[in-house]
Every structure is written in C-alpha cells, then in structure tokens.
Amino acid sequence: MSAKEKVKERVKEAWNKESSSALVLYNDDFNTFDHVINCLVKICKHSPEAAEQCAFIVHYHGKCAVKHGAYEDLEPRCLALLDQGLSAKIES
User: Do 79 and 10 contact (CB within 8 A), yes or no?
Assistant: First the structure.
C-alpha cells in the first residue's frame, strides 16, 4: 500500500468514527410533548422548531434520530436524555 493510500484510509476511518453514530429517541406513553421538546432544546441544542418536529416524528413513527456525530459527543447527551426519563440509545 502506498503512502497516499494509507493516508486516504486513515482519513476514511477517522470520518467513519466521527459520523457513523446516531442518537435515537424512542416513543413512550409517559412523557409530554413539552417535556420532550424542552429536553431536545436543552440537551441536543435543537431550535424549538426542530425539537417539535422531532417530537412529532417520534410520536408518529416510534423513533427519530435526533443527533448524529461521534460516539464521544453523543454519549453524554444520551445519558442526559435518559436521566430526564426519555428512552434513547446510540446506534451505529
């Protein structure tokens, strides 16, 4: 493998590690729309409009990827959502 190919491979691996995970929020029968929206604004830094759209997607489709990025960035957000009583997990 040439040096150029090695560099391309490292860049590809780094890109995959940083962008291959999604924080997925799941529907439940306990939390209100307002609570979900407030959590998405506070924890995921969504605009109120984006948070509302995600809340409706979760409600009608059962789940929604609310944030994409590196696992290291998503993990504390996932834990914070769980601490607020929401159902969430990180998927690759």
Answer: no
Secondary structure of residue 75 in the 3-state scheme: helix
Q: For residue 5, what are the CA distances in angstroms to 11, 17, 18?
A: 10, 18, 20
d(CA 37, CA 35): 5
The DSSP secondary-structure symbol of 89 reads E
Residue 47: both structure tokens together: 């605009």
Query: CA 72: distance to chain centroid?
Result: 11
CA 62 – CA 28 distance, rounded (Å): 8
pLDDT in tens, 27-86: 999 999 999 999 999 999 999 999 999 999 999 999 999 999 999 999 999 999 999 999
DSSP 51: H
* pTM for the full predicted model: 0.80
- CA 84 vs. chain centroid, Å, equals 15
